[in-house]
Structure formats: structure tokens, C-alpha cells
Amino acid sequence: NISANPTSGNHAININAGDIFLDLNGHTLTQTNAQIGISGIRIANRTNISITNGSISNFTAHGIYADGDTITINNVTLRSNGITDSEAALMFETASDFRAENVRLYGNYQGISVLNSNGGMIRKCTGISTTSLSIGSLTSSRMLIDQCRMFQCAI
What we know:
By secondary structure, the chain is an all-beta fold. It has strands at about 1-5, 15, 20-25, 30, 40-55, 65-80, 90-95, 100, 105, 110-115, 120-125, 125-130, 135-140, 140-145, 150. It is built from no helices and 15 strands.
């Protein structure tokens, strides 16, 4: 397991290149300090990124923030991420051809949020006890939500 203590303006893992496959191999990435605005994994306008097989927990901002094209999140658990209404466990922003599959959400402020994105699929995701939004989309198009289940969520 990986403990992260990022300072202000930093994130635990920054993906600043394309064609990256990050297999967490069953490990958990956890924020262990109280620094505000920290994401577990931040993808910055990149192409062909895949994150799979692990957990991300206790980040004060997003568990995963994804901006770019052809981004896949598969078999990931997101637990207790986000502390305000603008922070989702999984955020796709200005993303295209994105995919979230078999993502499990537990006790996050928001579940999955999609903003200004297009051509995405959210499939076979489950969530329990989000404080705010479960799965939401704003100014996005061509998005499929399929076989997702949310329980004890605010919206």
C-alpha cells in the first residue's frame, strides 16, 4: 500500500504523459495528511491512459481527476474522497472517449461526475453512501450509463 502526504498544489500521482497503463496491482493509495485540494491521481490533458486494479482513499479532492482522450478506469475502488460539492471520487472533465467500468464507490462526497465531456461510458459501477451526487453529467454528450447501482445516496 502507498501512503501520500502531498503539499499544497501537488497530488499523489500526476500523469503528465500519454500511453500510460497504471496497474495498482491490488494496492491502496491513501492520503494521510489533511492538506486541502489533493487528488489521488491527476491526469492532465493526456491520451490513452488506463488505471486498473486498486483502491484510492481519503483524498481531500478527487480520487481520480481525468482530463484527456481515451481514458479507462477499470476495477478500481474509490473510498472517502472529496470534502466539498465540487469534488467527486471520479471526475471526467473535458474528456472524450472515456470509460469507467467495475468502479466501486464507498462514502465519497460525490460519486462519478462528468463535466464538458463527450463519448463516454460508465458501466457496471456500484456506489454506497455518497453525500451528494451519485453519477452526474453537466454539458456533456454521447454518454452511456449502463448496469450501475447506487444505494443510500443523496441523489
